[in-house]
Amino acid sequence: MKKIFPEEMSFAVSTKNELKLATSSENGHPLSLKSLPSCEIPFVLSLGGVLAYLERLETGRNRSHKQFEGLQRAQAEEHTLETRIHKLRLLRDKLRAEVKQRQARVEASAASAVPDQTLETSEQKDLEAKQESVKAILQAYRFTGLSGKLTSQGVCVGIHTSFEGNLLDSYFVDLVIQKPLRIHHHSVPVFIPLEEIAAKYLQTDIQCFLFSLCEYLNAYTGRKYQADRLQSDFAAFLAGPLQRNALCNLLSFTYKVEPGGQSFPFCARLLYKDLTITLPTDVTVTCQGMDALATSWEEQRVYHENMFRTTSLHKVFTSFSRGEKLDMSLLS
Q: Where are the transmembrane segments (predicted)?
């Protein structure tokens, strides 16, 4: 029997883990297990088991390496997640602290705003009450020359003047209903003491403010109306131009009782110290060209003074034009 040495063997393992043994014989034919004596077969099988065992070890090592790599990745991800959770918890605690601080500030501001809101509510009620008062006044006195309409900021009051049944000029005052009340726009002439009237009544009594302003405007337009009528309707009685100031509270003129006649001219000076009335408070009538007047002329001068004090200017000249006799009761 021929002995087989290890260097003469080569092993091949198939996918089915079957061991094939190839030898180099003398005649060059492959050597199979069948051709081997029974005493040599265990040795060949022991070599095949070693190789299979090594293959299993290598497979297990690869599997263990892959599991180790997966474990490392899982640990890295776990660490990343723990870091992120820690940051989120810190952010949560910070936000909670900010929310508590903001709530505390809101509660403090709300507590301090309660008195302010009460004050604002009270002021608003006062303004609404004043607005309703103005509306009531305008409705009650619309036939006395007052009218008005509500605006976005308050109320616009119209003042329509008249004298002896004649409708004259109209003016307006735009009031802003707020605290304090104030005048936004107006068309009142500059010589009417509007600021003085407003300082006296506007904040305390709106009704007195409007009535006082109406008195001034009606008196002004009434005096102006009388002067205009004298110039337009009785120019023939005038011996010169009528002199008057813008407020029409000082009039000066020369006139004759008989238009175109030979009567001596009289000089009249009318002063209206009270700007809320339409009749003069001081009247001075003199006769030009005579140092010592006859009794009849003196009586006539006194009569004229009393007429100017008690009667509208244009009505005095209406009586002159009619040639009415002296009313002796006015001479006393």
A: none
